[in-house]
Amino acid sequence: MDATLTTLADHANAADAEPVWPAASWAALREAGVLGWAIPCEFGGAGLGSLELLAGSERLAGACLTTCFILSQRDAAVRRIRDSGNESLGRELLPPLARGETFTTVGLSQLTTSRQHTKPALAARPDGSAVALDGFMPWVTGAPQADYFITGAVLDDGRQILAALPADLAGVTVGRPLDLMALEGSLTAEVRCDGVRLDRRWLLAGPAEKVMATGRGGTGGLETSCLALGLPGAAVDYLTAEAASRPELRKGADQLEKSRQLLRQEMHQLARQAGVTADAAAALRARANSLVLRATQAALTAAKGAGFLRSHPAQRWARQALFFLVWSCPRPAAEAMLSYFSSAGDDLCP
User: Fold this and answer.
1) Are 243 and 335 in the same domain?
2) Is 28 exposed, middle or buried (0-12, 13-18, 19+ CB in 10 A)?
């Protein structure tokens, strides 16, 4: 695992700054067996438990958030396939995913954002033995690399479906990667569907009113908070190393590390429970967001002018921390962060 983390860290700046697939980092994950972590043993994976997955993802996020973000979206797709109950699709798709021979990702934000209250971004209608899809998926990570998209669409009656969408079907078009302020190598793009005819054998769930809430793959999990906890690890490690020759940094580094350990304990405790409530997940997410912002800003401050250079990781950590304010951030967590921003630092004001 140490060699894998070293490879990821060596390529982390390039993976963040360039809209190019992080091939070397992804190959390192494949060679280390990471791509099988979330896949059951019967499909050729490692079948790791939730605590093992969280611990592993936290370490990966500290080495290269861009690569770990891609992995998180791929694993979210894996969970949808794994937990769908569509055994034939599971047998077909999961083994090559475990071996790293194929790549899948999720295109589901159209079902989980404000778009769901207006005209559906991606609409579905019955078409004989198939389902016709028209519209778009606005945020799809790793889209140009995908062999399959795990996506959701809305029927005329308001019910929703989840499906595995082969990328090579007629009418599927992947747009140019979005110009992001960080994580450029994630190749996040819009995917359009124009009269796509999808055979019903690709359906994973639904029709249902709130299909994202069905099964074990629903929203509100801990994976996003895990990455928000992993990135501060790199910043805290940097501060700790600097404190060896700059004693004034020791207190701050120790306080941030203590916060990280407490949040990790809370996250693992929640993972041991039978189910994680939305409120508990949102509360943890808000605290993880606060930590990732504080730790990365502290590292940038300690790095001084050198940290503002593109070659220094502190600038990357600081920019990447902002991603957690907009990525899959539930309303309670967003409101908590707005409250934090409006009051934090009042004691420094005259």
Assistant:
1) yes
2) buried
* Domain CATH for 299: 1.20.140.10
pLDDT in tens, 22-37: 999 999 999 999 999 9
In a domain, 269, yes or no: yes
- How many CB atoms are located within 10 Å of the residue 2 CB? 7
R_g of the chain computed on alpha carbons: 21
Beta strand 160-166 with 104-107 is unpaired
Residue 42 lies in a domain: yes
Q: State both tokens at 277.
A: 């409530």
Which residue, of 213, 241, 268, is where some domain finishes? 213
Report pLDDT for 266. 94
With respect to residue 273, please indicate whether it lies within any of the assigned structural domains.
Answer: yes
The residue from 213, 247, 282 where one domain ends is: 213
Residue 64, domain member (yes or no): yes
Same domain for 249 and 181: no
116-145 confidence digits (pLDDT tens):
456 899 999 999 999 999 999 999 999 999
Question: What span, in angstroms and rounded, lies between the C-alpha atoms of 324 and 334?
Answer: 10
Mean pLDDT, rounded, for 202-228: 78
Q: Please give the model's pTM, rounded to 2 decimal places.
A: 0.94
Instruction: Supply 244's token pair.
Output: 């060896």
Tell me the average pLDDT of the chain: 92
Number of domains in the chain: 3
Of 178, 171, 112, which is closest to residue 144 (Cα–Cα)? 178
